[in-house]
Design a protein that fits this description.
The relative contact order is 0.13. The protein starts with a helix and ends in a 26-residue tail after the last helix. The chain is flat and about 55 Å long. The protein has one domain. The C terminus is likely disordered. It contains eleven helices and no strands. By secondary structure, the chain is mainly α.
């Protein structure tokens, strides 16, 4: 077995590699696509006039909020904030992948290989270096799965709570995050019928886990929805099936 100190050193090197390749990508080949311009304009409006005038259609608010706050409080251009956030969060994806692989296979070597592949995977690098919602969504989803895998292995209620927090942030970045919640309940049913614990213990564990996931996920997304209730052009809701339709762009007259 690899010594723990060596594992940490290897993992830090992989994260450094992940950070380096993403930074080089941003500096040498910056890409601002059509959707990026929309988010930049929304963030600029939010920073100057507040959320009331900024949000457009069904677009989830988290990414625009991050860009806007960077402009408002750090005096950075939204595209600069987007690049910084994308590179930093993208660099942490290998850490989440490492934890997922280790939780599933209980093998440090395999987990390190998985983390290395995540660090240099072209799609993940591209996702981290575009000013798009995926720059937040993919890392948040990766962290959520990491905590889920750890919770399944350790039967930790705390890890399920953290899973719910990251899924909520993911859903506030892209509406697809909502579809991870039913996967949790599918796992809960599977655990209910296959666990070797006594019926009372497994029922108590699953009931508490389910209640915490529901409370945290819907509590966080509902609070954000309420905070945007006065946003004239925001139609976003974490549970609105209309969010599956193409974004509706509305402009103030």
């Amino acid at each position: 077995m690899i010594e723990k100190k060596k594992i940490i050193n290897y993992l830090l090197l992989i994260i450094l590699l992940s950070f380096t390749v993403r930074t080089v990508k941003v500096l040498t080949n910056p890409i601002v696509c059509r959707d990026s311009i929309l988010y930049i304009k929304m963030a600029d409006t939010w920073a100057e006039l507040g959320a009331k005038e900024a949000l457009v259609g069904y677009i989830p608010p988290a990414y625009v909020f991050i860009l806007a706050m960077g402009q408002k409080y750090l005096d950075l251009r939204p595209e600069t904030v987007g690049n910084i956030v994308g590179v930093i969060l993208g660099s942490l994806i290998p850490l989440a992948v490492f934890w997922i692989a280790f939780s599933l296979f209980d093998c440090y070597k395999l987990a390190l290989i998985a983390a290395l592949l995540a660090a240099i995977q072209p799609y993940l690098i591209r996702t981290s270096t575009l000013i798009l919602r995926d720059a937040v969504y993919v890392p948040m989803l990766s962290c959520a799965f990491a905590f889920a895998a750890s919770a399944i292995k350790s039967k930790s209620i705390l890890n399920w709570c953290l899973f719910a927090v990251f899924i909520a942030i993911a859903a506030m970045s892209r509406y697809e995050g909502l579809f991870v919640v039913p996967i949790f309940f599918i796992w809960a049913l599977y655990e209910l019928f296959t666990s070797k614990q006594s019926l009372l213990k497994r029922f108590r564990y699953l009931a508490l886990s389910s209640c915490m996931v529901i409370f945290i996920y819907f509590g966080l997304t509902y609070m954000v929805k309420i905070s945007l209730s006065e946003a004239t052009y925001s139609l976003w809701s974490s549970t609105d099936i209309s969010s599956l339709e193409p974004p509706v762009v509305m402009r103030a007259k």
